[in-house]
C-alpha cells in the first residue's frame, strides 16, 4: 500500500471521528435542560464538567500517521537498494565494466547499467584553472590550487562544488554518498587544461572525511572522479547518444576509462592516475612506437557494425552533419567582411575581420574544392564498395592531450619492458567511428604540429614539426608489425605476427588460461618457426611489410586533406563571433538544476543568487577557434594545390604567402 493511500485512509478516518464528535456534541446540547451550566466541585472549587478528551485522540492519530510515514520510508529505502530508479537513455542502457567499479553497480542481462539523470550542471562561472581548492587546503599550506581572491569567484566555486556533491548523491557514485553536502567546501575541484571541446575537472573527496564505520572498521575513501562537462557548441558537433553507444562497446573490451554516471550536459568517468603526454612526447621514438601499437589494438579490437561500414567514412559524415551550420556562420562572416571599408581597420567587437576570409577565400569557393576533392578520393577506390572494405574503428582525435601514460605501482605487469606500450591509455572517444587507417594516421601526424599549451598562439599549426618520412615510416612500421591478441572473452579474432607459418599457430587460443596479465590485453606473441623459416621466407615477409608500409603512407597522404577540411569546419562551429545572429533560436535552452531549499540551508539566502556580470564585462573565449580554423584552412590549400585541385594562381595574393605546404 502506497504512502498516499495510507495517508488518504488516515484523513478519512480523522474526518469520520470529527463528524461523530460534532454529532455527539449536538445531541448533548439538545438534551441538556435550559438552566445555568451545572458546576461540579473539584478540589473544593466548582468546575465545568469535561467531555471526552480530544487531545488524547489527536495524539494517537498523529502517532499513527508518524508510524505510517516511517514504515513507508523504511520500505522505500530497502527497495531502493535492490531496484534502480534512474531514468536511462536508451543508448546507454548497458555498459560493461569490472565488478570492482567506482560506482554502485546495477546489472541488466549481465551488463552494468550506468545511472543517468536530467540535471544540468552549470560551470559558466568556474572555467578558470586556478579555483576550486578545498577549504582546508588554505590552512594546510599545501597549495596545489590557489584560491582566487575574488569573492564572486569563490562563491561560484562553492556553489559548483555543492552541485557536484549533490549530483554524485543522485547518481549514487560509489563512496560519494558518504560525503555530506555540508562538507562540499572540503572537496577539491581542479580543471585540467588541454581539452578543447569540453571542460574537464578532477574531483577529489575531502581529506578530513570521517571513514570510521560503526563496527570499528575503516572504510575506503571515495575515489577521485573525472568530471566532463560538454562545451556550449557541442550539440552542433557530436551526437551524444551515438557516443554513449560507442563507449558501451569500448567498455566491453575494457578500452578507455569507465563511465560512472551521466547527466544532461556531461558525465562522470573513472579517474586514471596518469600523466598526459606532451607535444615533445609525440616526437619521441619509443613513445611514437607505443602509440602506434595502441592504435593497432583499437583498430583490430573493435569490430565495425554493418551500418557503420554502409555509412562510409566518419570524416564525411561529420562534414555533412556540420555543413549547414558552417555555411550559416561563414556566409554571414563573409558578408560582414565584404561590407567592411577596406580603408578602415576593424577594432573592438569587429577585430576578427582583420583576418579576412576565414577560409582564405569566399566560402563557396572553399566548398567547391572540397566537393571536387571528395569525388577524386572516391574514384581512387573505384567506388564506395571497395572503400567500405578498408574502414576500421578509428579514434580520429589522437592529439597528445588525449593520450595518458599510467603510473603503475608495485609489481604491475605494466612495468615489464615488453608491456611498456600498455601504459598508454587513449581517452576522449567523442569522434571515434569508422575511418580508414590513412585518415587516422593523417590526423595523428598533423597533431604533431600543435602545442595547445603555447602561451602565445595555442591555435597555431606549425607545419615545420610535421613528422618526416622517416618518422612516419617508423610509426607505421610499428603499427604494421604489431599483431595483438585479445582475451577469448572479448570475441575478437586472434592474430599472429606477419609471416608466421600455419604450423606455428596455436590450435586453440580460446582455451588458454586467463591471467592477471591477460586482463591488460598484453601480447601473447607466437614464436616464429625455426628450421622451416628460411631466408627466402624472411625476405618475402620483409617485402610484404615494406609494401604495406608504403601503401599506408600513400593512403595517409590521400586522406590528409579530408582530415584538414573536417577540422576547419569544427573550428568554425566552435567559434563565438561577436554580433553573429542566433541561427537556431528554437534550440532548447539549458535548464539549471533545482533544489534551492537545500542550498539555502547551507549557503543562506544570499548564497542562492549568483552575481551577474558587471556592465560591459564580456567573457573572453578560452581558445581562438577562428584562428585555429584559418590556420587549418591554409594547410588545406597547401595540399589542394599539390593535388592539382586548384592552381596556386587562383588563390588571392595575400593567401599565397600564408599557405602551409608539407611536401611529404
UniProtKB/TrEMBL annotation:
This entry carries the following GO cellular component terms, namely:
cytoplasm
Q: Which GO terms describe its molecular function?
A: choline kinase activity; ethanolamine kinase activity
- The biased composition feature labelled Basic residues covers 14-24
- Disordered, as annotated region: 1-59, 488-508
* Superkingdom: Eukaryota
The UniProt record lists the Choline kinase N-terminal domain at: 105-184
Biological process (GO) annotations held by this record are: phosphatidylethanolamine biosynthetic process
Q: Which InterPro entries match?
A: Choline_kin_N (IPR007521), Kinase-like_dom_sf (IPR011009)
Q: Name one Pfam family in it.
A: Choline_kin_N
Family indicated by similarity: Belongs to the choline/ethanolamine kinase family.
This chain's protein is named: Choline kinase N-terminal domain-containing protein
The source organism is: Zymoseptoria tritici (strain CBS 115943 / IPO323)
